[in-house]
From TrEMBL:
The keyword Glycoprotein does not apply. Residues 1-20 are annotated as: Disordered. It is a single-pass membrane protein. The lineage of its organism: Eukaryota, Viridiplantae, Streptophyta, Embryophyta, Tracheophyta. This is Late embryogenesis abundant protein LEA-2 subgroup domain-containing protein. It comes from Glycine soja.
Length: 217
C-alpha cells in the first residue's frame, strides 16, 4: 500500500515539473518579471543611497549621546544614635549634558535611588526638561532622611565609616533622553547611572574618586 501512494504522488508532480522546465526554455520573460526586476534594482539603489545619506549625516552632525553625571556632592549631616537610627542630609548635583552642537535634547523619566548599605534613603526625581544645543543643566538635590532604621550590622558599618573617615552611598537610576539627528528623526536612549558617592564624614567633603557618568543603552 505505501508504494502505491508513492507512485500516485509522483504522477501528480510530474506535469508541474515539466511545465516549469518549458517556461525556462521558452526564452520569453513575462513583462511583470522585468518590472519586478527593475523595481528591485531601484529599491536596492535607494537603500544604498539612504545608507550613504545617513552615514554622511552622521559624520556631519556628529551626534553625541546626552549624558548625566554627578559633578559634585556634599555630606551635610551624618548622625547615628544608639537606637540604630541614621539621620543624614546630602547635597547632590546632577548635570544633564547635551554635547550636540546642532540638536536640542530632552531628558525625562528621571529617577535615582539613593541608598546606604542596601537601605533606601531617598528617591530623587525631576520633571522632564530640555537642554539646548551644546549646553547643560544642573539639578541640585538636597536629600534629607530623618530616621533610617539600621540593622546592628549596618550600625557597625557606620561606626567603621567614622573611624576610617570614609562613607559611601549608592546612587542608582536612569533617565530617558531623546534628541534629533538631522531631518531623519529623533533618537531615544536610556541613560543609566550607577555609582558610589564617597565622603569624608569629618568635614562632609565629597571624594572625587572617579567620574560618575551615565552609560547608555
Ligand atoms: C560648545 O561649547 C563650548 C564651551 O561651552 C565651546 O567651547 C564650543 O565652541 C561650543 N561648540 C559649538 C559647536 O558651539
Ligand atoms: C528604587 O528602589 C525601589 C525600591 O527599592 C525600586 O522599586 C525601584 O525600581 C528603584 N528604582 C530605580 C530607578 O532603581
Ligand atoms: C576634608 O577632610 C579630608 C580628610 O581629613 C581632607 O583630605 C580634605 O581636604 C578635607 N576637605 C576640606 C574641604 O576641608
Amino acid at each position: 500500500m505505501p508504494s502505491h501512494d508513492h507512485v500516485a504522488e509522483r504522477q501528480h508532480h510530474r506535469p508541474i515539473r515539466r511545465r516549469l522546465v518549458n517556461t525556462h526554455h521558452s526564452g520569453k520573460t513575462h513583462p511583470l518579471i522585468w518590472l519586478a526586476a527593475i523595481l528591485c534594482t531601484i529599491i536596492a539603489i535607494g537603500v544604498v543611497i539612504a545608507g550613504i545619506v545617513v552615514f554622511v549625516g552622521y559624520m556631519v552632525i556628529h551626534p553625541r549621546i546626552p549624558v548625566m553625571s554627578i559633578t559634585n556632592a556634599h555630606l551635610d549631616l551624618l548622625s547615628n544614635d544608639y537606637a540604630g537610627l541614621l539621620q543624614t542630609q546630602l547635597t547632590i548635583i546632577v548635570v544633564a549634558q547635551n554635547g550636540n552642537a546642532k540638536a536640542h535634547a530632552t531628558f525625562s523619566d528621571i529617577r535615582f535611588n539613593l541608598s546606604y548599605q542596601g537601605q533606601r534613603i531617598a528617591l530623587m526625581r525631576a520633571p522632564p526638561f530640555d537642554v539646548p544645543k551644546n549646553s547643560s543643566k544642573s539639578l541640585n538635590y538636597v536629600v534629607r532622611a530623618a530616621s533610617i532604621p539600621l540593622t546592628p550590622q549596618q550600625m557597625e558599618e557606620v561606626d567603621e565609616s567614622w573611624k576610617r573617615d570614609v562613607i559611601g552611598f549608592d546612587l542608582k537610576g536612569s533617565a530617558r533622553t531623546r534628541w534629533r539627528v538631522g531631518p531623519l528623526g529623533s533618537v531615544k536612549f536610556w541613560c543609566n547611572l550607577e555609582c558610589q558617592l564617597k565622603f569624608h564624614p569629618s568635614n562632609g567633603s565629597y571624594i572625587h574618586h572617579s567620574r560618575c557618568t551615565s552609560k547608555s543603552k
